[in-house]
Specification:
The chain is of the alpha/beta class. The chain is 32% helix and 25% strand. It has 6 helices and 7 strands. The protein has a 7-stranded mixed β-sheet with strand order 6-5-4-1-3-2-7, sandwiched between helices. The chain is globular and about 45 Å long. Its cofactor is Mg(2+). It is found in: Cytoplasm, Cytoskeleton, Spindle; Cytoplasm, Cytosol; Cytoplasm, Perinuclear region; Cytoplasmic vesicle, Autophagosome membrane. InterPro entries: P-loop_NTPase (IPR027417), Small_GTP-bd (IPR005225), Small_GTPase (IPR001806).
Length: 203
């Protein structure tokens, strides 16, 4: 597979205002807008980025879906055939973790081949003591063990664990023996290869 290019569909799911759009903005454009008023994603927003893994260019198509329950049926369209799902929850909002579980159940039922990455957002608010942690780390790790997925705690403000998360997704895709038929695509080159071990990671 050396030198080949492959496509990987990644979808973000989770409650509205759960940090999905900010996470994608930080990864694709390396920016964060703390003073911009929150706006709902309507349907889904799409972006693409290329990352090199062991000499293989992986072009990720990243779908940021709407978190509002009224767009639930539409989100199902966007996660169809996804090979990776970043299921987000706000570390300062316990109801967002319940919503994350809903999306995990949906994926396990409808897209069993989709690899799940459980992702806590807004870690900077806890670190800076602006908001208390409402989703306990042990609770998340126990659930992750149950569904056999990785856990990342991220901050779109600081960039914590975001490059690592997406690089791990691309690396897992390349290393999966089921993905041996690469397709050619173009994208934005990102040659950075960060340490794939996150600050908070549970297998």
């Amino acid at each position: 597979m050396s030198g080949s290019r492959v496509d990987l569909k990644v979808v973000l799911l989770g409650k509205e205002a759960g940090g999905k759009t900010s996470l994608v903005e930080r990864y694709l454009h390396d920016r964060f807008h703390p003073n911009v008023p929150y706006q709902n994603t309507i349907g889904a927003a799409f972006g693409a980025k290329k990352v090199e893994v062991g000499g293989i260019n992986v072009t990720m198509g990243i779908w940021d879906t709407a978190g509002s329950e009224r767009y639930e049926a539409m989100s199902r369209i966007y996660y169809r055939s996804a090979r990776a799902a970043i299921v987000c929850f706000d570390l300062t909002d316990d109801t967002s973790f319940d919503r994350a579980k809903f999306w995990v159940d949906e994926l396990l039922k409808n897209e069993p081949d989709c690899k799940i990455y459980l992702t806590g957002t807004k870690y900077d608010l806890i670190e800076e003591e602006k908001r208390p942690r409402k989703v306990e780390e042990t609770k998340v790790e126990e659930y992750a063990d149950e569904i056999h997925c990785l856990v990342y705690e991220t901050s779109s403000k600081t960039g914590q664990n975001i490059k690592e998360l997406f690089y791990k997704i691309a690396q897992d895709y390349v290393e999966d023996p089921k993905n041996r038929e690469p397709e050619v695509d173009e994208g934005i080159i990102d040659s950075s290869q960060p340490n794939t071990k996150p600050d908070k990671c549970s297998c």
